[in-house]
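Thread: Newbie trying to understand structure tokens

Hi all, I'm a second-year student working on a class project, and my supervisor (Dr. K.) asked me to get a predicted structure for one chain before our next meeting. I've only ever worked with sequences, so writing a 3D structure as a token string is new to me. If someone could post the tokens and maybe explain what I'm looking at, I'd be very grateful. Here's the chain:
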Amino acid sequence: MERDLDSVRRNDSPVRIRHHPLLSESTVKLIEVTKAFATEEQCLAYLEAKRWPNGVRCLMCGSKEISRITRKVTKKSDNKRAQLYQCLEPSCKAQFSATTGTIFNGSHLPLDKWYMAIALIVDAKKGMSALQLQRHLKVNYRTAWYLCHRIREAMVDKDAPKLKGIVEIDETYIGGKQRGNPGKLKNKDVVIGVRERGGQLRLVQTKDNKEDTVYQVIADNVSKDAEAIMTDESRIYNFRNTQFHRVRHERIKHKHKVYVRGDVHTNSVENSFSLLKRAVIGTYHQLSIKHLQRYLNEFSYRFNRREDAELFENTVMRMAGVKPMPYSKLVEQNAFTPFVRSAPKTSEPF
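---
Reply by user tm_fold:
Sure, no problem. This is what the structure looks like when written as tokens:
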């Protein structure tokens, strides 16, 4: 039987909450999140429901014979969570919590602040900087920065299907100001944008804008059965001897001041670039090459789900399935960049 958070009891019976009654059907707002998750008990019950929709199971042996243990959490105690689960299987008897083995694991930050951070980030069209989050949550900067990156970790679409239909492809450059084109890549990072009209957007950071590099991005994200591929007149888009040789390939000649020719244009993907750059300039100001792909993942995730009324709930569910990310790994020099370039830029500290 489904129950809301107000009827949660501290006993051995399972708590199953698929949709919280205080969260409206429209996009969840911060005020709704603060009302729905006012206590740690409510936060844990909600996370439990998202992680185990059919009832809690032991993380070690998979048994559903579970006992609940409640305990007090104070600033002086080592306890981080108010509720634990004890496996009743004689050969196991493992103890765990709703956050064990998830991206929330080991966090001293209360779950209500986690939920507020998620609500702020998924609702921010142009992103939310760590400095902004620091002010909203009243935490120190490093905590806010680490929190943002752990939320981004759940925004990676690892097994996303390849794009079909009419696909637009273009490249853009993220970095500081400079004059002329000869040194275009001297202090700028290349981002390849692939967008299906009426469909999803993919943004991929690459080490350069050479033909082979760009083609690999396209091959990884576009189906060979696509209806058509739209690009500009750049020479890097050459599919004559590739798996896309049978796909209709149309070029729009921007250097001739032509931007639309029938259904031939790259306006959709360029509009996405425009929104991305406004986020960089207005919110983050500058992004480091080390974490650029993580910001691109966040932007794509939010952009592709901009019509999703359950974005907050689905993001919490994804986070419950993501493994912990230690701070030490996040600050490693080449932890998230598959290539190395000299003199990487830095935006915020770390």
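A couple of things are worth pointing out once you decode it. The two ends are 47 Å apart (CA to CA). Confidence is low (pLDDT under 50) at residues 1-18, 343-347. Feel free to ask follow-ups in this thread.
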